[in-house]
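Page 42, continued from yesterday. The earlier attempt failed because a stray header line got pasted into the input along with the sequence. Redoing it now with the clean sequence only.
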Amino acid sequence: RLPDSNLAVELMRARNDIFLDKFLDGTDFPGLALITTQKPDKAAEEIDRMANEDQIVGLFVESTGPHPPLGDPSYDVLYQAAEDNGLNIAYHAAAGYNFKYDFPLQNRGFEQFLEIHSLAHLWSQSETLTSLIVQGVPEKFPDLKFTFLEAGISWVPYMMWRLNKEYSIRKREAPLLERSPEEYIRDQFYFASQPLGEPNHPNQMGKMIDIIGAESLMFATDYPHWDFDNPRELDKHLRATYSEAEREQVLSRTAKEAFDLDI
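This time it went through. Structure tokens are written below.
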């Protein structure tokens, strides 16, 4: 959201250097390189630079704030660099400063942060997913993988089926697509579990996980944030409904596959 795009690019590079030197150096931890979107060509250069670092396994992109939305063709150079380097793009939304700029009228009507925090990540991630699909990004970059963080999972079935419906009656508006939106989402998109959601009837969460599929769902906790998920909550649903192989898929293998982790 920085209006000074040159400053945003320099901060991106500086943050990634500090991340490598002060946080990853001397550890076995993998990490994500921060990618700003104000200048997609400079973002592509940074992707090429960071791809040479063994501990960088993906890219972190803020999905609350970019304009135009992140499926716009102006970002193709960024996505091409990500695909060429085999780096997953992880979209992360926010409920703070950025959200107030992107949804000013809605914020003006809300009185409690509870209201904003309930909707901010959902709105940002739904906007991004819709833009990616309708603009044909997964069709243009079939080897690219996308991950959505911190919006939970209950919004995913709605978006898959809503996009299917809209595409079925307005295909001319998404001319690049060769398959249904749901097929692209199931093939190239991953969704982190946090915040898991808390239905009054716990068995309904098992149904939600089943709809999304273990291959697309990856465990996340968001610890130590105040709204983090206790790992036991997701594991409770997995143990109650799924085989040990499916449980292992969600808790570890999905992330390994999404970010090509050698662990």
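Notes: The beta strands are 31-34, 56-62, 88-92, 146-149, 189-192, 217-218.
Reminder to self: strip header lines before submitting.
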